[in-house]
Recover the amino acids of this structure.
């Protein structure tokens, strides 16, 4: 720090970038011939040290502003990070919303598919039931026709049997009548013969 106050003039120059100090002022109250006067205690003072100190203070002040700027930059970066995090959260929320929508759509599609499958199953069941009822009705009709045919045949058989009984009865009746008639004729003939035979015996 000795270079700030002008001490050790033989030392190296101050760091680059600092302005060159102005030349020192001439000694007070002296002329060119005043070299014979005795020098006071300030005669060897170098004012460039103060100037260098002031310049250093400015640099320090700039450094404080730099710290403030750095702090501001950090705050801005924090704000940016917060905004970024907010965007990330919004994006994640949008992704979750999209996933939820996809799940809802898939569930709706599954529900529609299930409803359609249920309708098709019901339609097939109704069709199978209709076919079964038709087959049952056809079987009933066929059974009814068969029963009617059997009944008709039975009735025809009964009628034939009845007719046969009538024929037999008539035949028997006629035969009996014929036999009765023949017997009566025979008895009459026999009686007449016996009568004639008896009259001839009496004579």
């Amino acid at each position: 720090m000795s270079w700030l106050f002008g001490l050790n003039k033989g030392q190296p120059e101050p760091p680059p970038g600092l302005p060159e100090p102005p030349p020192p002022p001439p000694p007070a109250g002296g002329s060119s011939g005043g070299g014979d006067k005795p020098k006071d205690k300030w005669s060897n003072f170098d004012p460039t040290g103060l100037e260098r100190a002031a310049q250093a203070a400015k640099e320090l002040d700039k450094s404080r502003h730099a710290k403030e700027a750095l702090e501001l930059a950090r705050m801005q970066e924090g704000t940016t990070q917060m905004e970024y995090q907010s965007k990330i959260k919004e994006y994640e929320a949008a992704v979750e919303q999209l996933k939820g929508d996809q799940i809802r759509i898939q569930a709706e599609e599954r529900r529609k598919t299930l409803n359609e499958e249920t309708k098709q199953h019901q339609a097939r069941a109704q069709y199978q039931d209709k076919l079964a009822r038709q087959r049952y009705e056809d079987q009933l009709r066929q059974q009814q026709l068969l029963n009617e045919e059997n009944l008709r045949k039975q009735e025809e058989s009964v009628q034939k049997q009845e007719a046969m009984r009538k024929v037999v009865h008539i035949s028997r009746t006629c035969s009996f009548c014929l036999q009765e008639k023949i017997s009566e004729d025979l008895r009459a003939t026999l009686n007449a013969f016996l009568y004639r035979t008896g009259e001839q015996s009496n004579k």
Summary: Residues 48-202 form the longest helix (155 residues). The chain has one domain: 2-150. Residues 1-12, 14-22, 28-36 have pLDDT under 50 and may be disordered.
